[in-house]
Amino acid sequence: MRPMIAEYDPKKKEVRNDLSDVMVKYKVDPIEIPVEQQAGSTLPLMEIPGRDVEADEDYDPFKHRKLAHPTSDMDTLIHLLKGSLGSGILAMPMAFLNAGLYFGLVATFLIGGICTYCVHVLVKTSHELCRRMQKPSLGFAETAEAAFLSGPPAMHKFSRLAKALVNSFLVIDLLGCCCVYIVFVSKNIKQVADFYAKDSEWFPHDMDVRIYMALLLPLLISMNLIRNLKYLAPFSMLANLLVGTGMGITFYYLFQDIPSVSERKPFAGFNHLPTFFGTAIFALEGIGVVMPLENNMKTPRHFIGCPGVLNTGMFFVVSLYAFTGFFGYLKYGDMTSGSITINLPEDEVLGQSVKLMIAVAIFFTYSLQFYVPMDIIWRNVRHWFGAKKNLAEYSIRIFIIIITLCIAIAIPNLGPFISLVGAVCLSFLGLIFPSIIEIVAFWDRPNGLGRFNWVLWKNLFLISFGILGFLTGSYVSIIEIIESKE
User: Is the pLDDT of residue 42 over 80?
Assistant: First the structure.
């Protein structure tokens, strides 16, 4: 059988299979990833000479992965826990405030289960597409592109759009998290500074939190001009140590003088559920780290097996988040803040130390979170800048940092901000996109959608659930942001 590369021709509005002027458009960069020279997909749909489509199913992508330093199951589990246990855990008590004590407990495990299942769908579909495309591994955006390229012919022309959409939402999500981090760090520092400034003659008392955000700008710029990830590794280790210590002290406070569960609402009401959904999915959804971890495993089949690395890791993550949310809301009730650290005593050195430790840890996490969207943006614009690439990259970094700071200053209300980021970005990344990718990838395959098309109906439910969460969560969060300004 003749080798073939399928490429969409935007001028003729059709998919082109001619090799004559397509093969020359692809080269391999230093990390052996096909890079597109002109219009068309970065993932050519290829068939190996002398083999038919059915024989391609025998291709095992795991045997073709060439990894310099593959990770073991335990290493991957640890990385998954580190990637999923972020600042969102500090917002879980606020999520329970908007859901109720018992309903929040049940709903947290339900949303955690749905998020975990959607990750399963994404990883399984990625494995299938690796076999079809005969590629050892695919990232999230590349999986979306490959699904549309290998799906129904009518979908081929949308492959680049699918990849661009996934990358765009990843960038918006991660930069949104960076904005949340700025608000979080500033609020915690302000609490400690206000306590010591009330009797000071030279330091202004009760200074606006926006001023603290502005004062962070030089530090943010200096940290995020570091372009090599290995130089950020020590800051990551320090951040993990600070978060672990800070959370340990936080739990110490949570278990002091715990009130009766009868003093808390079992269900907060339907009008608060959209805010709960946005906050919970912001905290629980770690889909951005899943594909890189799975692609670097020594035994990738163990990632989604039973019990599997994913199931084990997400069980611990969801349980810890539910535990923190339950006891945080039980302790502070209607006084629960957007971050549980803000509720800690202001007049105790131990409480103040937690606020500062978590603030420093989240500040360092900003740099790690910023690295991924900056990498995506730079890979798509670096060809515009000729010989002045270094100057251009530094300028873009500084510009994006300033943008995140301006957004944080414009929306200093931590709770609704977290809910808005979760509702807008993670509804799509965690629920809608994996479902669409599976539908397109298996649409025209024999029995690909299962008996009675149950795969289709299941994914339509998940898409509807994601859209409902996106619309209601965004609406309620925006209303709360507007009302807080008034």
Answer: no
Alpha carbon distance 272, 209 (integer Å) = 26
Phi, psi at 130, each rounded to 5°: -60, -40
Q: Is residue 36 part of a domain?
A: no
The token pair at 320 is 């810890």
Instruction: State which residues form the domain around 129.
Output: 76-484
Are the CB atoms for 202 and 368 separated by under 8 Å? Answer: no
Q: Domain for residue 50, yes or no?
A: no
DSSP 336: -
Q: Where are the alpha helices (DSSP H) in 411-453?
A: 414-421, 427, 433-442
Phi, psi of 305 (to 5 degrees): -75, -165
Distances in Å between the alpha carbon of 206 and those of 198, 212, 353, 386, 485? 8, 11, 19, 49, 18
User: Cα–Cα distance between 112 and 322 in angstroms, integer?
Assistant: 10
CA separation for the pair 486, 479 (Å, rounded) = 11
Burial 227-257 (b: 16+ CB within 10 A, else e): eeeeebeebbeebeebbeebbebbeebbeee
pTM listed for this prediction: 0.79
Residue 29 located in a structural domain: no
The CATH number linked to 176 is: 1.20.1740
Task: Judge whether 422 lies within some domain.
Answer: yes
454-485 and 273-284 are packed helices; what angle lies between their axes, rounded to 10 degrees?
110
Q: 188-232, pLDDT tens digit by residue?
A: 999 888 888 877 667 777 788 999 999 999 999 998 888 776 787
Q: How many structural domains are present in the chain?
A: 1
Q: How many CA atoms lie within 13 A of 295 on its CB side?
A: 16
User: What is the distance between the alpha carbons of residues 176 and 288, in angstroms, rounded to a whole number?
Assistant: 13
Angstrom distance (rounded) from CA 256 to CA 163: 49
Grouping H, G, I as helix, E, B as strand and the rest as coil, residue 256 is coil
How far apart (Å, rounded) are the C-alpha atoms in residues 346 and 260?
A: 24
| Residue 179 to residue 198: CA distance in whole angstroms | 28
412 phi/psi in degrees, rounded to 5: -85, 5
What six digits make up the tokens of 332?
């502070």
Q: pLDDT at residue 67 above 90?
A: no
Burial class of residue 353 in the structure, from the number of CB atoms within 10 Å of its CB (0-12 exposed, 13-18 middle, 19+ buried)? middle
- For residues 149 and 153, what is the distance between their CA atoms, to the nearest angstrom? 8
For the chain, what's the residue count? 486
User: Cα 150 from chain centroid?
Assistant: 26
d(CA 285, CA 298): 24
**Contact yes or no for 418/91 (Cβ under 8 A):** yes
Q: How far apart are CA 359 and CA 353, in angstroms?
A: 10
Residue whose pair of structure tokens reads 């430790």 in the numeric block: 357
pLDDT category at 399 given cuts 50, 70, 90 is: very high
The tokens describing 473, both together, are 């969560």
Tokens coding 393: 């990259």
